[in-house]
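Whether sequence alone determines local backbone shape is best considered at the level of individual chains. In the encoding step, the backbone of a single protein was reduced to a row of integers, each denoting a local shape. For completeness, the protein is quoted in full, as a sequence line and a line of structure tokens.
***
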Amino acid sequence: MLLRIVLYCLLFILVLVESTLVAFPLLLICSVITYLLFPGVRTLVVIFLAAFALDVIRMHHVGLTPLIIFAIIFILSFNDKIFDIRDYAYILGVVILGTIVYAIVMNYQLSQIVLGMTMGSLALAGYWFGKQKFAKKS
């Protein structure tokens, strides 16, 4: 429960960080990881509110960020029966492709796309190492 609250707060902190300090899709990456850890309607509502707030603050097309994030989550959920969505290579591929699509739609520069993919890879690697560490203690 504490991890869920921390991730929800992190989503809204990333809204402020992404709208003011950095220009790569941290919210997208964190949203996918949050949904994979805690799938459910409550998580989708929090992700929608955070992405909507990001669009409003950045004065972009309102609703475009939640649409792209939900499309990526839909792809991951839809292929649950075909692929094992807990396979990290599959998740990494979808996050990288989603980051590229998001960056192109939101007019990021190529260097920001590469940086976003690197951050997504690092976030996924951190999640994997954290899960491995906690799985050994249990």
Helices lie at 2-20, 26-37, 41-58, 64-78, 88-105, 110-137. The chain has a mean pLDDT of 80. Residues 110-137 form the longest helix (28 residues). The two ends are 17 Å apart (CA to CA).
